[in-house]
Write a structure and sequence with these properties.
single chain; 185 residues; mainly alpha; 72% helix
Length: 185
Amino acid sequence: QKAVTTLEGVLERLSMSDADYMRVMLELFGALLYVCTRGSSGNCISRYERRQKDLFQQMLLLAPGNANVYESQVFGVASVPSACERYIDQTTDLADSRAIVDLVLRGSTILSPEREWSVSDLESLSTFLDCSLDRESSTKALKTDKSARKRRKLLYEAGIRLFADSEPALANDYKRRRDQDIRFG
């Protein structure tokens, strides 16, 4: 929790135009993930979860201007795509997962095929999409929401677009899975 407080203080003092702004944001996000997965008092966790969501939205908004991968990170979040992967992975609630997916699909350009990502970032984005698809294929999702199939189709389409040029085999895999899931799912 001390790391969160320290990083929040550093972030407040930096200008958004500062070269280290995104690096500090990613570190803070990683620290928040760490604190939230370790469990603490309920009020503390809910405060951190709100901050985590706000910070994630801000990172997605700033992502078009920053495709950097930071090699030395303390909390394991090296880039915005890795933040997406880690965030969806630590979220267990279906509604929270859907909120994260909506932010990425509708509130950002992170899955735009025009973006230039490193191999590790593309792997993170693929993991993000696969984890999201798994959540939408869960028994709870299928029982509680008839739009789960539509959501899965949107996720498959995002994967197809994202990987069409950079990883055609992966794009074809998303096409195959989409066709199989939508036709027989």
